[in-house]
Amino acid sequence: MALPNIQSWSRLIFKKNWSALDIPRHLQLFSSKTIKDFLENHGFRIHRIKYGYDTYDFIASIQLALFGKKYRPDREERIPI
After folding, report:
1. Are the beta carbons of 11 and 57 closer than 8 angstroms?
2. pTM exceeding 0.85
3. Would you state the pLDDT for residue 64?
4. In this predicted model, what pLDDT tens digit does every residue of 25-77 receive, in sequence order?
5. Residue 67 lies in a domain
6. DSSP E strands, the chain
7. Range of the domain at 55
8. Is residue 61 part of a domain?
9. Is 4 in contact with 26 (CB distance < 8 Å)?
10. Backbone angles phi, psi at 18, to 5 degrees
């Protein structure tokens, strides 16, 4: 399972321009703790949590911050942070 981390450093830097705020693909956002708690409360066992870095996410967030919707036509809605 791969999910954007609401507590990631890129979310903290880019805030409302974080490219992972991708409505409607991401309707719920989790931190490592909240997804771990949710899954364990529903009978899943966590074997490991691996943090990744997506260069595309970083570049897309920079473009969104600098140019807005002009460079992200697929992104019609934003949610406030």
Report:
1. no
2. no
3. 84
4. 777 888 889 999 999 999 999 888 887 777 777 888 888 888 876 454 555 55
5. yes
6. none
7. 9-71
8. yes
9. yes
10. -70, 125
